[in-house]
Hints:
This protein is mainly α. It has helices at 2-21, 110-120, 124-135, 155-160, 169-186, 191-200, 202-208, 215-236, and strands at residues 43-44, 47-49, 56-57, 60-63, 69-72, 82-83. The strands form two sheets. The protein has a three-stranded antiparallel beta sheet, with no helix packed on it. Strands 5-4-6 form a three-stranded antiparallel beta sheet.
Amino acid sequence: xxxxxxxxxxxxxxxxxxxxxxxxxxxxxxxxxxxxxxxxxxxxxxxxxxxxxxxxxxxxxxxxxxxxxxxxxxxxxxxxxxxxxxxxxxxxxxxxxxxxxxxxxxxxxxxxxxxxxxxxxxxxxxxxxxxxxxxxxxxxxxxxxxxxxxxxxxxxxxxxxxxxxxxxxxxxxxxxxxxxxxxxxxxxxxxxxxxxxxxxxxxxxxxxxxxxxxxxxxxxxxxxxxxxxxxxxxxxx
Length: 237
């Protein structure tokens, strides 16, 4: 029953996605871009809430021997599979994570992050905060709307930023950092607006003349800023 209901929800979500985005990228540089599709989903890396919202159930996507795509709450024994993320790690409104104390990723991809920070004139702490918020440093993260890798690049954004393989950590960090730097430049160095644009698209930030009134985007910006402060503090210590 869970899988049947999930598949119906998934098909509905895809229809909403097609209506909402055109083919927007996690963020092409143009202000006409709508950013990542705005789909409300209480789903995270930890799984889908069950009916009583007491546990999280992971959902696995894989292709069966007959070629039909399947979704299950159990990983297949003899097939490659993908665990779906329905939104960025820090966008979940029902998250029970304490963002003031969650463990930080202080050494992962250190060389690449330092290179990206230098090349694009960014704080390394900001790059780490965005990666943490987007994917919790899961290099294989894939959202339902197609955002990929550490910095959750949509296909169009990856292409615009010169990323050939969004699951390659170096390419993803370099491309995502390049885009983040463009958003910062576009919004005159305002980190809150740049992060909102990274999440919801620059056109939405311009439309609302500030952080869009989407609860997921507002939660995302708030949590990125918490993580940024903590990564800055860790760098100084």
